[in-house]
């Protein structure tokens, strides 16, 4: 791991490319409009970013369609696409520190998380998906001897991926890896709050050998580039990660246009349940702190609702408060920093509003509190823990997307399950118990796409990632991700 001085030196050297990448070239938006990329830790402008709209979307979609129809990528043997994607993985690895710095500067994430999570996970996802694509077979249907029924997976065509700002590189790769591996042309629309790393990724894609037009990146405000992509009649699949509100809008846009398939991976308000038979309270408390304070709580699977069995609540809360001390917000580029800056002023204000609401609703501030913004000093918030929380409070029900933890309690297993499920979201859940039967019983009953037992956030490229209820229904990673980007084709041959 580099020292703080080395990271700062690298941050001064990296190229800040803000132009869109369409048909193999960097270009300004057709309108010439830009918006600033701001470093949330310093409030300084990093660079200007192209503000793409419908005109740029038209250009990218027609380049993507042309490439798809030409077969320059879609007709390659899977093994050939694999080799190019493996080269891209190697380039991401080679330029990992540079990509890490770009995201850290752009959205305030601790550099240690970029180096420890985002970059290695992105490389692994690219490699795992690339390696899988030439090992998947079609099917032959069990027909009579006078026919041959073939069932194959075909690339869907032009895929638009719209991604959020909290894991800019990783969220993008979770979508583009399977979409490209399956043979599609892909247009990535990153969040306006963190577009820099994926613009560099587009350049690396070209260097790896991805043909022009097959992978474009269009930065732009959601209601311009994102909406134009979602309404476009020549986009076949829309893969989205972001808020449940915008996910709902995208489903409407698909209905208003060509019924493109829309995959939604949306928000969360994940519960953590700690039972009195938990075998290691200190470990659970330390994980409870990590589950809400890493990446400043700007994590879709953040366990923002903690329910502890009444008999161990006091002991657990003590251990939790101790663990939270490690998350004092600091310069994201310092290698020891475990909590950086919130992404922007609007996010800081949202978090401040929710902490005030928690107090007004009767919550008890155990540590942290309403942040006071000091102009020019960055958007930092103390780790905040609110006790006396219950499900009747708005701050316990709504996604805050910041370092704010609600702590409530339960008396028995049935109540724990009820409290966990009493929420509109269903992304993840963490359960702490030493009782194997309880671990299985509770995991089955919890309404969420993912459950972690005696841990939080575990998973790798082999496991699907996604939710239920208002958290959406799409799945990233694993072979299941490929289903989003392929169509089933049947061919019935009379013999
Ligand atoms: P957001 O919904 O505001 O924006 C997501 C993307 O949609 C951005 O690229 C944005 O520019 C674009 N967008 C916004 N309005 C649009 C519109 N009208 N039409 C088309 N595109 C539009 O979400 P965000 O604030 O960037 O990200 C935070 C959210 O993402 C949280 O709710 C978080 O839980 C969720 N998230 C979910 C997962 C998951 O895997 N389920 C992962 C990460 C983040």
Automatic annotation (TrEMBL):
Q: Where is the active site?
A: 265
Alphabetically list the UniProt keywords. Oxidoreductase
Q: Which domain of life is it from?
A: Bacteria
Q: Which GO terms describe its molecular function?
A: aldehyde dehydrogenase [NAD(P)+] activity
| Domain Aldehyde dehydrogenase, first and last residues per copy | 30-491
Family matches, as InterPro entries: Ald_DH/histidinol_DH, Ald_DH_C, Ald_DH_CS_CYS, Ald_DH_CS_GLU, Ald_DH_N, Aldehyde_DH_dom
Gene3D superfamilies with a match to the protein in the record: Aldehyde Dehydrogenase, Chain A, domain 1, Aldehyde Dehydrogenase, Chain A, domain 2
Q: Which family does it belong to?
A: Belongs to the aldehyde dehydrogenase family.
Q: What is this protein called?
A: Aldehyde dehydrogenase
Q: Which organism is it from?
A: Marinobacter lipolyticus SM19
């Amino acid at each position: 791991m580099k020292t703080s001085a080395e990271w700062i030196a690298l941050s001064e050297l990296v190229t800040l490319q803000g132009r869109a990448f369409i048909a193999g070239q960097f270009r300004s938006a057709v309108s010439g409009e830009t918006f600033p990329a701001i470093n949330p830790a310093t409030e300084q402008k990093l660079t200007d970013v192209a503000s793409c709209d419908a005109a740029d979307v038209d250009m990218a979609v027609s380049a993507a369609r042309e490439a798809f129809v030409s077969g320059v990528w879609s007709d390659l043997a899977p093994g050939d696409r694999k080799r190019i994607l493996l080269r891209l993985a190697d380039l991401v690895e080679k330029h990992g520190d540079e990509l890490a710095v770009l995201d850290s500067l752009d959205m305030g994430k601790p550099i240690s998380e970029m180096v420890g999570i985002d970059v290695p996970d992105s490389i692994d996802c690219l490699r795992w998906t690339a390696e899988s694509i030439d090992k998947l077979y079609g099917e032959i249907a069990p027909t009579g001897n006078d026919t041959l029924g073939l069932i194959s997976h075909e690339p869907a065509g032009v895929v638009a991926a719209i991604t959020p700002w909290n894991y800019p590189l990783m969220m993008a790769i979770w979508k583009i890896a399977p979409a490209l591996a399956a043979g599609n042309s892909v247009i990535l629309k990153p969040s306006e709050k963190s577009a820099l790393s994926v613009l560099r990724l587009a350049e690396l894609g070209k260097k790896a050998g991805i043909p022009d037009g097959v992978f474009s990146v269009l930065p732009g405000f959601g209601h311009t580039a994102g909406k134009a992509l979602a309404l476009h009649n020549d986009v076949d699949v829309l893969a989205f990660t972001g808020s449940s509100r915008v996910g709902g809008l995208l489903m409407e846009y698909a209905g208003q246009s060509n019924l493109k398939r829309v995959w939604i991976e949306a928000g969360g308000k994940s519960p953590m349940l700690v039972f009195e038979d938990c075998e290691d309270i200190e470990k659970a408390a330390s994980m409870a702190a990590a589950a809400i304070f890493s990446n400043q709580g700007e994590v879709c699977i953040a366990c923002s609702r903690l329910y502890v069995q009444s008999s161990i609540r006091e002991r657990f809360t003590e251990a939790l408060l101790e663990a939270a001390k490690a998350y004092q917000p600091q310069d994201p580029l310092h290698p020891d920093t475990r909590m950086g800056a919130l992404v922007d002023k609007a996010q800081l204000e949202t978090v401040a509003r929710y902490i005030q609401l928690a107090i007004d609703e009767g919550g008890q501030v155990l540590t942290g509190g309403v942040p006071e913004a000091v102009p020019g000093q960055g958007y930092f918030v103390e780790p905040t823990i609110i006790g006396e929380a219950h499900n009747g409070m708005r701050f316990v029900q709504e996604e805050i997307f910041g370092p704010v933890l609600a702590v409530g309690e339960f008396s028995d297993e049935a109540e724990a399950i009820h409290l966990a499920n009493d929420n509109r979201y269903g992304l993840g859940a963490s359960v702490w118990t030493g009782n194997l039967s309880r671990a299985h019983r509770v995991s089955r009953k919890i309404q969420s796409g993912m459950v972690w037992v005696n841990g939080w956030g575990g998973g790798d490229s082999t496991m699907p990632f996604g939710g239920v209820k208002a958290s959406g229904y799409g799945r990233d990673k694993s072979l299941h991700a490929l289903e989003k980007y392929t169509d089933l084709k049947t061919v019935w041959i009379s013999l």
